[in-house]
Design brief:
248 residues, 51% helix, alpha+beta, binds glutathione, 4-stranded mixed β-sheet
Length: 248
């Protein structure tokens, strides 16, 4: 039986979420480097990639044996959890599941906006205007305030006292901001979020899933060199495959 495949780069936020879930659950998979936005053979806009996910963004998940493929990180997280019966991460109870889904939908255009602050450094080809960066920062800060005062006000994790796929999705965006990673936004002004980040970093698979971010380090003041991006991608992909080798 062929292993499932995740296409993407380890630096990408939504790729990191999918990779982390698989590492956390110790599911062997193949990680295939696919460059976001590129129409070259190994790119997310190549005809081959588009035949698997017409949206042309990473991550894409594929089960070669069945021909099933899926894009959109939150859909992939939900599929993995429901098809594998990981009830603690994505409950079967409709009301409990709806609370997780509520976050997964809220994520886009809210917490996900934070990535513009990272993309402005690592994706110079996207040419963000000052106005769009300011708007993204404003939306991100407002969404963090909702997490701080609503989602994390009473619980240790976003929905329950234990993590779900909502936490993994959110961490991929918020965790990258920390000073030991990209350092492009100061999350320390949010005490509940800061404690939650600490709790999340104790979950299995964390180190390997975040190796690319650690390798690149701060991009607060300037865009990284192409060479540094390459080094971070290689280190991240290596950490992921080394972690998978330890599963039996
Ligand atoms: N909503 C999508 C977002 C995916 C996404 O934006 N991925 C970026 C990399 S972080 C990408 O592939 N961009 C391709 C492009 O810019 O053309 C998800 O959660 O999977």
């Amino acid at each position: 039986m062929s292993l499932p495949i995740v296409y993407g780069v380890p630096f990408s936020q939504p790729v990191r979420a999918v990779v982390w879930l698989l590492l956390l659950k110790r599911v062997p998979f193949e990680f295939v480097l696919s460059m976001p936005g590129s129409s070259n053979n190994n790119g997310s806009r190549s005809p081959e990639f588009l035949s698997k996910f017409p949206g042309g963004t990473v991550p894409c998940f594929e089960e070669p044996d069945t021909g099933f493929s899926l894009g959109e990180s939150n859909a992939i997280l939900a599929y993995l959890a429901s098809s594998n019966g990981w009830e603690e991460l994505y409950p079967e109870n409709p009301k409990e599941r709806a609370k997780v889904d509520q976050y997964l939908h809220y994520h886009h255009r809210n917490i996900r906006e934070g990535s513009t602050l990272v993309a402005k450094r690592v994706r110079p080809d996207l040419k963000f205007s000052e106005q769009s960066i300011k708007a993204a920062e404003k939306n991100f800060r407002a969404a963090l305030t909702i997490l701080e005062n609503f989602f994390l006000n009473t619980n240790d994790f976003l929905i329950f006292q234990h993590p779900t796929i909502a936490d993994i999705s959110a961490y991929a965006e918020i965790g990258q901001m920390q000073s030991h990673y990209t350092d492009v936004f100061d999350v320390s002004e949010f005490p509940h979020i800061s404690s939650w980040l600490q709790r999340m970093s104790k979950l299995g698979g964390y180190e390997a899933a975040h190796c690319a971010l650690k390798e690149l380090g701060s991009i607060k003041d300037q865009a990284p060199e192409i060479e540094s991006m390459k080094k971070s991608t290689i280190a991240g992909a290596k950490a992921i495959s080394e972690a998978i080798k330890t599963f039996s």
